[in-house]
Design goal:
This protein is an alpha/beta fold. It has helices spanning 3-18, 39-52, 59-63, 70-81, 87-104, 114-123, 136-146, 169-178, 192-200, 228-234, and strands at 26-29, 128-132, 155-157, 185-189, 204-208, 223-225.
Amino acid sequence: MTANQEAGRQDMNQMENEHHHLPIQGVIFDMDGVLIDSEPIYFEIERSSFDHFGAAVTVEEHHSFVGVTLESMWQQVINKYQVKVPLEEILVYHQQHVMEQMLAHTELVGMPGVERWVQWLHEQQIPIAVASSSPRALIDLIMEKTGLGSYFEVRMTGEEVEHGKPAPDIFLAAAERIGISPEHCLVIEDSRNGVQAAKSAGMRCIGYRNPGSGDQNLSKADVQISSYDELWALKNTLPFKSSTPDLSRSV
């Protein structure tokens, strides 16, 4: 066992002890940086858009936007850098640019080990959802191109809730969609904003340390991992329990 796995197991045990009476019955995934390593792609597209609209956003400031909606990011940029172009016009330009780049990208694949993990959750009859700040069209495109779409029938976007991350709205809505109460949900997130949203929703949270997502403070997560292999090795320490009756045991 590696040092990271041993530390992760200790964190898992602490999380289980703190919530020993609350089984995990649903898992909610962020998308970018968790299901797919797309943040570096977005980063370059966004920097191009910042230059296009004359906003000298620093790299450090740019990383602080990871996990928030495009509307929130651009509104902050407009306010700070006094961009004269209307928000709606910027969003149309930027979203079109993102879709063009992602459609042209030929190597969009899921994170290493993620499909084994979601397949295992499916076999355990644990409902899952994706809850992303990205627009619906982009989520659907990535789900299709990575082949993960068949696992994620429930897809929540930042467009469908009043307040984006770090507010808890999107995770609460996703929990309602999969029919699991918040205290029985586990969230996997790679950003400070996402972890804050999950904890504000009253959910347990695994912080996924992804270098492509920048230097994110995930200290509020219950557990931190660096790969799905780490999570796979620790899965039996988590109190998973399906909320669906096992009919095969009653016949």
